Known about the structure:
By secondary structure, this protein is an alpha+beta fold. The protein has helices spanning 17-36, 58-70, 102-109, 122-136; strands spanning 3-11, 40-46, 49-57, 75-84, 92-96. Helices cover 40% and strands 29% of the residues.
Amino acid sequence: MELVQLCYVSSINLKDLRLMAEFRNAMHRAATFFTEQHIHGVSFYANEHFLHCFEGEAESIDLIYQHILNHQDQNYRFCFLNNIEEFHFEAWQMKYVDRNGVVSIFCKKCGLNHFKPMSLTDQQIDELMQIVSVRTVSK
């Protein structure tokens, strides 16, 4: 089994209530898919911005990658796709960025006033994923 990790950033405009309902439905479908496909990782959200990190078998992660490519209406940037030896996250979780949490503190150290992952470099995102994965996996 070949395990890979895909990280990308995206943004969405949720000011329209119809879009908010579509977003909630999409998140529910994603959570179901992630459970069925044994996808691990995390999606951080704040200020209409996301930072996603998915881990799983290469075939399952490729389905996610292709899905993202097919939704060209989204604003996104792929950061990296790495082979991994083991999962860094116990399961997939959706998390809101806490103003005083580790993600916000990291963003401030990188010169950002708030969570805006599109402004982080791929190297910074990799560093942040290493920090949050240590806090997620019980050893």
